[in-house]
């Protein structure tokens, strides 16, 4: 090796040592990227130790990143709040039944009043609720005897239904009435000369078998003459507002005894409110001294709740019935029905029409189903696939009349546990004066999502 001009050996300069080991590592890495692998040369042991420490530091940082971040995500995903389940409900549909068909007769004339159901049938039902046919006066035949009895008892009142009242002794003139009415084809009852009856029993004989000879004999006894009776009858009719009614004699054999369906409904209510008349007209048969066994001409007594009042006919096409009935239909009290049918072709025809009319009223009152047990009225859903249903807790009906509208209202509350059987509200139905309420509840249960679902659905976490 040749020496230098100065005579000194060439010196090898040592690179300046970086003060920061990480900075040195970065520099070396940069050189390798720019120039490729450097020529192999001996590495200072100090540098080697520094490089090793830097490598361990970087490795630790990488491990923290690789292990720490996923661990934090897992913790968050498994504990993040969930969105509340979605509850959707709908009111159950209600089918209103068809309107009840009230079976009023198609011939003659009829009227009916119903007390005890104004909240169902309307405020005017207890007046005159329904009519058919003419409203003009018609012959009323033996319904006349109800007016005769009421006029007599207005002059000679009975204290109650059991009060016999004064005793009436019948003369030969009274006895002769038997033959007079017999030849006219009227209904009669025995009235021996010198026999006697209480006023109560004499009126019973007038009304139950419809004995015409008793109607004239007792009205003459009460007022002294038939002229006086007619005057009293006219005054009584006027006092009771029965201005559409005309009475010319006490039996009804004269077709000029007429009345309107409206007046006869009012008459029926007056008679039904009179203890003695109501009791007598409800008696199917009776045995009395003198008349013997008497049988009520109203053969509907006791059928379909019928309690009275009076038949009347003048032959074919003039069969009439003024009736009262107590009809249970499911309301708090039975309906108090007052009705009249005029101008029936036969007694059987009148009876059939009355029975059909009462049947149709009864059938119009009914329990209407509005919901089935477990009927679905809503759903509960979640993003993770768990679901349940909202259902009616019981079978439900509501009592109503005919096609009365039925309204429905649902109220709901937010579930707390989302478990089977939890009550989450109620449904109320209303029809006329009646309401019925039933709870709604969860059928099934909402279960939490799995850990796998939480870890794979980050966008649906956080209560979003």
Write up this protein.
The chain is α+β, with helices and mostly antiparallel strands. The chain folds into three domains: 21-77; 86-95 and 369-460, Peptidoglycan synthesis regulatory factor (PBP3), Domain 2; 109-344, DD-peptidase/beta-lactamase superfamily (Beta-lactamase, 3-Layer(aba) Sandwich), CATH 3.40.710.10. The chain is built from twelve helices and 19 strands. The strands form six sheets. The chain has a six-stranded antiparallel sheet, with no helix packed on it. It has a five-stranded antiparallel sheet with strand order 3-2-12-11-10, with helices on both faces. The two termini are 82 Å apart.
Structure, briefly:
It is built from twelve helices and 19 strands. By secondary structure, the protein is of the alpha+beta class. The protein folds into three domains: 21-77; 86-95 and 369-460, Peptidoglycan synthesis regulatory factor (PBP3), Domain 2 (Sandwich); 109-344, DD-peptidase/beta-lactamase superfamily (Beta-lactamase, 3-Layer(aba) Sandwich).
């Amino acid at each position: 090796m040749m020496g230098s001009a100065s005579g000194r050996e060439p010196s090898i300069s040592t690179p300046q040592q970086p003060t920061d080991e990480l900075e040195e590592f970065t520099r070396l890495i940069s050189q390798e990227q720019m120039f490729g692998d450097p020529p192999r040369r001996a590495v200072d042991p100090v540098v080697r130790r520094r490089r090793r420490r830097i490598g361990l530091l970087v490795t630790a940082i990488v491990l923290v990143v690789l292990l720490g971040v996923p661990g934090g995500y897992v913790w968050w995903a498994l504990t993040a709040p969930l969105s509340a389940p979605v509850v959707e409900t709908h009111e159950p549909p209600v089918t209103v039944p068809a309107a009840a068909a009230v079976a009023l007769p198609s011939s003659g004339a009829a009227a009916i009043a119903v007390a005890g159901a104004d909240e169902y049938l309307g405020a005017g039902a207890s007046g005159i609720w329904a009519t058919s046919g003419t409203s003009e006066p018609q012959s009323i035949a033996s319904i006349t005897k109800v007016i005769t009895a009421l006029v007599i008892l207005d002059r000679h009142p009975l204290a109650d239904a059991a009060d016999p009242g004064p005793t009436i002794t019948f003369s030969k003139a009274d006895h002769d009435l038997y033959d007079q009415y017999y030849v006219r084809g009227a209904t009669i009852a025995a009235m021996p000369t010198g026999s006697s009856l209480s006023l109560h029993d004499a009126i019973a004989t007038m009304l139950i078998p419809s004995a015409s000879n008793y109607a004239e004999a007792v009205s003459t006894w009460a007022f002294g003459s038939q002229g006086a009776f007619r005057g009293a009858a006219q005054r009584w009719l006027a006092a009771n507002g029965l201005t559409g009614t005309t009475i010319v004699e006490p039996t009804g054999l004269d077709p000029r005894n007429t009345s309107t369906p409206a007046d006869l409904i009012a008459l029926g209510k007056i008679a039904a409110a009179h203890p003695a008349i109501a009791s007598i007209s409800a008696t199917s048969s009776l045995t009395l001294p003198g008349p013997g066994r008497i049988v009520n001409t109203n053969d509907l007594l006791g059928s379909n709740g019928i309690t009275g009042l009076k038949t009347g006919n003048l032959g074919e096409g003039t069969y009439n019935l003024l009736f009262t009935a107590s009809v249970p239909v499911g309301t708090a009290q039975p309906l108090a029905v007052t009705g009249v049918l005029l101008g029936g072709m036969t007694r059987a025809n009148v009876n059939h029409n009355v029975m059909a009319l009462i049947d149709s009223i009864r059938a119009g009152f009914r329990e209407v189903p509005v919901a089935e047990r477990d009927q679905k009225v809503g759903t509960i859903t979640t993003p993770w696939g768990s679901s349940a249903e909202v259902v009616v807790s019981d079978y439900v009906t509501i009592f109503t009349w005919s096609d009365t509208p039925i309204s429905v209202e649902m109220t709901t509350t937010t579930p707390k546990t989302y478990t089977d059987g939890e009550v989450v509200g109620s449904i109320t139905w209303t029809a006329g004066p009646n309401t019925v309420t039933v709870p709604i509840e969860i059928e099934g249960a909402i279960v939490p999502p799995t850990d796998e679902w939480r870890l794979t659905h980050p966008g649906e976490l956080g209560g979003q």
